[in-house]
């Protein structure tokens, strides 16, 4: 199932330590958290294509390039290299996810197939399905290339009809805290105070709230940084290499004041 684009950009509120030049944490809603969690569903081959082989840290880029350059004479017959280079990506739950990464085309459209014999005397043919139209039926040895329709189960009963139909992964009535290392937790006033103590912040006047708009450029940077760093938010939104412009929506606030949840 294809993902549904719900916004070109999403907003993210950062708490920045201007003295330490670091992002302590961010506050975000459902849309940004859904985007982060959806990264876990990306096939490695798709990640490499998004970041380009040259930008990959380590050896994955070389591995990808090796498959690209390997001659067909060394590939098992009926094996398509695109299954490795352009893996299928069709998560059933990834609807209504913010479109913050470029669209990656899969090698083939995800589908399911049954035996072309259609049953007949070989009643066991109806027991088998395949996701490859070149597969052979175990019962009659014919090609299994007749398209089958995959039917998803209905949403489970829920006390809130809106939450059952909103898509994505997390509920939208909660504000979430995202740490610099992308640890995600539900936000609370008590946890915010505890985090300031944990970060050993001594100069509260050095803290500023900033709001950034995260678009496709920042989405790719977040993906790349998540594979390389444990200070992802700082690297993407404060690093001069990222070139991200922070947009003030609120004036600098003292940490001693009550911060809005």
From TrEMBL:
This is DUF674 domain-containing protein. InterPro entries: DUF674.
């Amino acid at each position: 199932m294809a993902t549904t684009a719900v916004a070109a950009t999403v907003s993210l509120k950062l708490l920045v330590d201007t003295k330490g030049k670091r992002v302590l944490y961010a506050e975000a809603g459902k849309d940004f958290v859904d985007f982060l969690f959806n990264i876990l569903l990306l096939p490695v081959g798709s990640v490499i294509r998004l970041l380009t082989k040259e930008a990959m840290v380590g050896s994955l880029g070389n591995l990808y390039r090796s498959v690209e350059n390997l001659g067909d004479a060394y590939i098992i017959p009926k094996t398509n290299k695109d299954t490795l280079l352009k893996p299928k990506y069709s998560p059933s739950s990834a609807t209504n996810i913010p479109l913050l990464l470029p669209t990656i085309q899969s090698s083939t459209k995800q589908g399911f197939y049954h035996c072309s014999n259609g049953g007949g005397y070989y009643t066991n043919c109806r027991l088998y399905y395949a996701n490859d139209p070149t597969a052979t039926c175990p019962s009659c040895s014919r090609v299994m290339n007749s398209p089958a329709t995959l039917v998803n189960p209905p949403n489970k009963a829920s006390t809130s009809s809106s939450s059952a139909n909103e898509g994505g992964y997390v509920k939208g009535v909660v504000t979430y805290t995202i740490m610099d290392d992308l640890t995600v937790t539900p936000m609370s006033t008590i946890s915010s105070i505890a985090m300031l103590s944990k970060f050993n912040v001594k100069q509260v006047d050095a803290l500023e709230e900033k709001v950034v708009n995260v678009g496709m450029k920042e989405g790719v940077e977040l993906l790349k940084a998540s594979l390389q760093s444990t200070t992802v938010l700082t690297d993407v939104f404060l690093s001069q290499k990222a070139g991200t412009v922070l947009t003030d929506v609120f004036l600098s606030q003292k940490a001693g004041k009550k911060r809005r949840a």
